[in-house]
Amino acid sequence: MIQAYIGIGSNLENPIAQLDRAIETLKKHDDINHFRVSSIYGSKPVGPQDQPDYINAAATFTTKLSPIALLDLLQSIEQAQRRVRERHWGPRTLDLDLLLYGQEQIQLPRLTVPHTFMLERGFVIKPLSDLAPDMLLANGKTVIEQLHQLDTSDLVFIKEE
């Protein structure tokens, strides 16, 4: 079994309900165990600012799914919740990103793990710090040390899961 971490985000069609639905779907999946989710935070969008603010969380679980099978599962949940990819960093009903898959480093056409921009984004690292503050990241820092390097002034606590 591998410990996986995902980022969960939404800024369309009742974002909190979108996160809740995705979380429930993942919790019920046969190949996902020991599921835990962070608190939920609000943040300004990355990229185009002509869109609503985002709601973000992180989750962790163990799985026997391969990285690509897990990516396929995450993308199928996005599709079930009517995700449309209209523009890069545009608005979305649901965004499920595979952040970490054990200690593996993966470079494939469809998947890069650790997630390419996770170390730069407070809306990823803050929820991750709720789950694993002392986890060592690929850059040699713990999650909490990385959090202290980021500007998180735009993050707003929404609710505890």
TrEMBL record:
The alphabetized UniProt keywords are:
ATP-binding, Folate biosynthesis, Kinase, Nucleotide-binding, Transferase
Q: What class of enzyme is it?
A: transferase
Q: Pathway, per Swiss-Prot/TrEMBL?
A: Cofactor biosynthesis; tetrahydrofolate biosynthesis; 2-amino-4-hydroxy-6-hydroxymethyl-7,8-dihydropteridine diphosphate from 7,8-dihydroneopterin triphosphate: step 4/4
Name the Enzyme Commission number(s) assigned to this protein: 2.7.6.3
Q: What does this protein do?
A: Catalyzes the transfer of pyrophosphate from adenosine triphosphate (ATP) to 6-hydroxymethyl-7,8-dihydropterin, an enzymatic step in folate biosynthesis pathway.
Matching entries from InterPro entries are given as:
Hppk (IPR000550), Hppk_sf (IPR035907)
7,8-dihydro-6-hydroxymethylpterin-pyrophosphokinase domain mapped to chain residues: 88-99
- Family stated for the protein in its record: Belongs to the HPPK family.
Entry GO MF terms: 2-amino-4-hydroxy-6-hydroxymethyldihydropteridine diphosphokinase activity
Tagged with keyword Nucleotide-binding: yes
Task: From the UniProt record, report the name of the gene that encodes this protein.
Answer: folK
Tell me if ATP-binding is a UniProt keyword of this record: yes
**Record's protein name:** 2-amino-4-hydroxy-6-hydroxymethyldihydropteridine pyrophosphokinase
